[in-house]
Amino acid sequence: MKGLIFKEKGIVSLMEVKKPEIINDTDAIVKVSLTSICGSDVHLIAGHIPTKPGYVLGHEYVGIIESVGKNVNNLKPGDRVAGPAAPYCGQCEYCKNGNIEHCLNGGVHGSGKEFGNLDGALSEYIRVPNAHVNLLKIPDTVTDEQAIFVGDILSTGYSAAKNADIKMGDTVVVFGAGPVGLCSIVGAKLFNPGQIILVGNRDKFRLEIGKSMGADYTIVSSEEDVLSRISELTGNKGADVAIDAAGSSSTLSESTRCVGVGGRISLPALYSKPAELPMQELCMKNIQIRMGLGYLGDMDKLMKMIELGKIDTSKLITHRMPLDDAEKAMNIFTDRNEPVIKILLKP
Fold it and tell me: Where does the record place the Enoyl reductase (ER) domain (predicted)?
């Protein structure tokens, strides 16, 4: 089968690789019907997340079950399924305490030996461990394109919104108009905020997509004073919630300073270097901060919301390409020489 291999720093190659097989009784082999490139793949290729090259990349997928281990009783060949980027066992101490993202027996698909040595989804087939826990059947009325983001960026965006404890009527500011930031808008809307403000840098295309997905106002940080504009939009009282999905020192600073008294800050982004926090100001304003890896345990709820027409992430899709063009797709996604948010690849 074909798979997109991380060969060495900065280089990927679509190559013939061995088709996965059942190893454990709780495994499933899934024929990938749709996959996508994620920003985390770019971080791995660039060496921002140190791993030893030589593995198939990718962790966003939907597909059809080809075979299951003898202890997988809730799924069968032919079932159309979505799976989480980071599969978990459901039985270890961390899983039982609700910290499935830190599963002692888990990992992240397509991220090398350092992250569990699990098959990458930028391929024709993938082995999914603990399939009875991780794989979710896709309803007949939900398309592959509607379901593709459930197991990663949609769950991450939703958990970012949930961690912010958004209340009806709140003003929510989202920093970052990338896929997670845009999915944070989708997640925030489920909690009935009063207004959503999206802050981005220079990519006005992404800001317009954000507006079409639920942002009431957009701010271009390179052209406007972000804090002054937020103050204006909130009647000088500050936002109730800030979500930093960008992960820079400047967006973290603005996230902490744009909220008013009793504000809540959610940090789903990964920061590449240390950043300072205005601790005295945060303390004096009774600000709460929550952070951590995206929670992937709400896939079933999100799938139901998609089925009911309450969630639509289709506007994130800017490119549709065959897996044979995976190298070209990675260049488009990395270079961003044309408007791009998510690229879907079909094996």
Answer: 10-345
Residue 219, amino acid? I
Tokens of 279: 């601790």
Dist. CA 186–CA 95, nearest whole Å: 26
Task: State the pLDDT at residue 270.
Answer: 84
Query: Residue ranges of the domains in the chain?
Result: 2-152+296-346, 158-291
CA–CA gap between residue 338 and residue 336 (Å, rounded): 5
Q: Which residues of the chain have pLDDT under 50?
A: none
**From CA 18, how far away is CA 51, in angstroms rounded?**
21
Q: 194: which DSSP letter?
A: S
Give yes or no for a contact between 170 and 241, defined as CB atoms under 8 angstroms apart.
yes
Strand partners, 8: 11
Q: What is the dihedral of CA 54, 57, 62, 67, to 10 degrees?
A: 10
Are the beta carbons of 244 and 269 closer than 8 angstroms? yes
Provide the CATH number for the domain formed by 2-152+296-346 in this structure: 3.90.180.10
DSSP track, 220-275: ETTTS-HHHHHHHHTTTS-EEEEEE-S--HHHHHHHHHHEEEEEEEEE-SPPSS--
| Best CA proximity match to 119, nearest among 137, 136, 134 | 134
Alpha-carbon separation of residue 86 from 58, 69, 277, 297 (angstroms): 11, 20, 30, 10
Residues 6+ apart with CB under 8 A from 279: none
The type of residue at 286 is: N
Pick from 269, 213, 183: nearest CA to 254: 269
Cβ distance 195 to 167 under 8 Å? no
Cα–Cα distance, 336 to 68 (Å, whole number): 39
| CB 256, CB 243: distance < 8 Å | no
Q: Which residues contact 274 (CB under 8 A, 6 or more apart)?
A: none
